[in-house]
Each structure stands twice: as structure tokens, then as C-alpha cells.
Design a protein that fits this description.
This protein is an alpha+beta fold and about 525 residues long. It has 18 helices and 18 strands. The protein has a domain of about 170 residues: Periplasmic binding protein-like II (D-Maltodextrin-Binding Protein, domain 2, 3-Layer(aba) Sandwich).
Length: about 525
Amino acid sequence: MVREMAEAYDVAGIEGADRRMAQKKVAAGALALALGLALTSGQANAGKRSNTLEFAFQRETDFVDRIHTDSRESATLSSAIYDTLLYQDPATGQATGLLAKSWTWKDDRTIELDLRDGVKFHNGDAFDADDVVYTVKFVIDPENKLRQQESAFLFVKDVEKLSSHRVRLTLTRPEPVAEFLLAARFLVWPGKHTAAQGHMSHATKPIGTGPYRTREVNPGKGVALQAFDGYFAGPKPKAKIANVNIRIVPDLQTQVAELMAGRLDFAQDMPPDQAENLKLNPALKVVFGDTIRITFLSLDAASRAGDSPLKDERVRRAIAHAIDRDAIANRLIGGGSKALSAQCHPAMKHCVQDLPKVAYDPALAKKLLADAGQASAVTLALAASVDLKTVAEAIQGYLTAVGVRTRIETAPLPTWRGNFLKGQSQMSVLGWGGGGIYDVASALPVFFDMGNADYARDQQVADWVKQGSSTSDQTRRAQIYRDALARIAEKTYTVPLYTNTVNYVMSAEVDYTPTRVDVPVLSQIGWK
């Protein structure tokens, strides 16, 4: 089996992927050109004529609101259906008022927010301070055991109603990125409705104040949205398209066929070669954009998934040296992706870029394995959600080349996430966007806070991360995060892989300019 894997990947992981891509490129390019010339403008414009955007997700999310879960899919849906207290402008990254039209810092732990008048929920309920109080008290209640509750919500200690449209938030500590956290995931539910129906109702019948309302949530199939005519005038755009049908289409080749046949208007994250080929179709266009998301390899240094060679720092370093991150970024991901040198995005504040580089060095990787007594005995599970399978296969090829046997385990996002949070991952390829916040405080806490997603279990790193998240002294924050990132790199608790880019393949009649936020803002999509 090892020999077969080595041959399949030409011993180096990216080489086999390159060959398969090259073989597909000729056939796919010819098909794209032929179908592109054959398609009539009427077929390609079907979405515009019906004022319905047909949109593809590759994977399903178990919740459409970002209170319960945080994924790219839930972020896309949540931004359309719900509003948050504040709003992070997707072009500038700056915070401004949304459901809270203004706010005042009374001290470093107290914020008072003036709420917007005249806002309606999709069910007709009027928005006021009671809805904010209900939602905030729910998300900060430890009994509700929300995913990422500690990092996303528990910087708020309490909420108090001051008047019908004014509230006070008391923080548990000084929080330097509080405004961005309020913009990222502090959406507001209708309090009376949620209390009556239960918070789980937002999984299948979400009700918010956002520019789109939900017509239907069909688990495993998709979500149908309709423009909310009663949406207020604020910094988030009103819906430009009457209806958005989001379908779950896991197979990328099916997405390509649907795009070229005019049955899909919008898809994202095509493999770079497929995206280039689709440019040949005059009925389609391909747009690339930067994001603040990173992809990395998590390593079970703490042996949470059971005893394994990964507890040995030399084995973890060997894995890091075995992977050609530049090749993965440039040749497999493309679109301007860059190899990472630290466990954060270079655009984030306090993300140091001068840490010692872990070079691609298969010979050194083999030596480290031999020094650890693992020259021919390492066998590890490599997990990934289905959308990252290609990256996992490239990593598998690189590890095979230095004598590390792996078995790839792919699963839909909810299943993979559940296993990961239960401590069942030896190695996992995963992406992290940090809520789109341009600060290291959004990159580290989830994975280095001694919580469910922490596979390092390094108390010193956890202490630094906590300190960095609770001081407003930027000089001190810079030093704390430098120390934390340096130790993470020194101990090889993770292998930072690459910065993510995003490509959007859309009908030529679609009008959309991507921002650095790595999810499309549905209400910014229109027709030409």
C-alpha cells in the first residue's frame, strides 16, 4: 500500500495532484469552450430573468446562525438573515453601527449602546432592548454550552436594559477587539419568539432582521431566501435580488456542469485549474479575491486521541519539514495564496513574520524521524472535511515520501467538527477565518485555550493567549503574542500551511466585487 501511494503521488504530494490537474485541464477546457459557444444568452441569463440567484454550497452546515456554529456557510447565511449589534465593513474592516446605531465606552469594561428605532423582525415583531437582553443572556449562559462560547461570547459578563432602545454591556475583562466581536457573531434573535419556540428553531426556521428572510430550510438540500422588503436603511446593503436559492452540491464537477448549463449563477472555491478553464465560457466570469482565512495542520501533541508518535516534538517537526507549503500555496491553491510562517494571517495585527522559517527539507524530516526511533513505524490518521480532501491528499503524498504512513478520513463538516472537538483527531487539515477580525486575538484562543479545540494543552501558551486578549496595551499585546507564536512554532503544535484565497465563478450577468471577507455578502450581489 505504501508503494502504491508513493507511485500515485510521485513520492512528492503536489506532483501527483499537478499531473491529474493537467490531464483534466485539457478535457475540461475543451468542454468549457464547446459548451460556452453552444450556450445561448437566454440560457445563461435564466437567473436574471426570474430575479432568482441560484447559488451552490459544496457542504452543508448544521445551523444557519453564527450563534450556534461558525463556518463559512453559516457566516454567509447568517449575514443575510440576521443583523449584529455592530457591523464590520467588509471593504475597510472598520466597525460601525448596525442594530446599535451608536455606542459609548464608559470605561474599559462598560459599553452603552443606543439601539436603532423602527427595525422589524421577519415575523413582524418590533426590535427593541428586550431582544438584545434575551439574546445576550442566552449566549453568555454557560449552561447553554455553545460552540466556541468562551472565545466568541464570554468576554461579556452581563447585559442591562436602560430603556426601550438602550442597553449596557459589562465586560468580564478589558477586551481590545470587543467592537469587532460584537460585529462578528453578536446577532440578535427575536426574544419572545425564541423563548416560545426554543433556540433550536433557528436551525430550521431562522428569524432575524436581515436583508433576506428564509422561505425554506431543507436539511441536506439547501436554503431558499427571499428579499425582506421591510429591511431598514443602514450600512449593510438591502437585498438587490428578489430570491436566492442555495443548493448543496458537494461534487465540484456537478457544479461546473450546472454553471455551464445555466442552472447555477454563483459558486465559489473552484480548484484553480477549473476556474481558469471556466474563463473560456463567455457566459461565465471568474473573480479572485484575498481573504483573512488561513489553513493549517493540527497535530495531537497532547495525545488527546490516544498515545501516538505525535507526542514527540521531533516527529512533529519532521512532519513540518516534510511538507512543501510553497508548492501547495502556489500550485494547488493559487490565486495569490502564500505559504505561512506563523499560526496567523500576516494581515492580522501582531502577527509576527520574522519567526524562523521551517524549510521544506525531506532529508531533515527523515533524520528527525530516525532520531525519534520512528524511521519506519509511523502510521497516523489524517482527517479533513470533504472540501479540504485535495489538500489532505497532497500532504499524504509528502508524508509518504519520508516514511510516514497516513490514512485519510474525510467527512461532512458537521461530522468532522464533532470528532475534532471530541478530541478524536490525530491530525486534521482545517481552515480558520477568525470571524474576519484583523487581529491575532481572533486567531489563537480557540486552538490554544485548553478547550475542546486545543490539541497542544500548553498552559504557558494558554496563559499568554488569555493575557493578550485581556489587555489594551498594544506594546504589551505585541510582546505577548510574539512569545505565544514563537512557542507554538518552536514546539510545532501546528503546521501553518497557507493563506486562503477565494474565487467566485458566476454568470456574466451577475454583479459582485469580492472583499477580503472570505464569504460572499449576499445582499451585495446584484445583476448587471
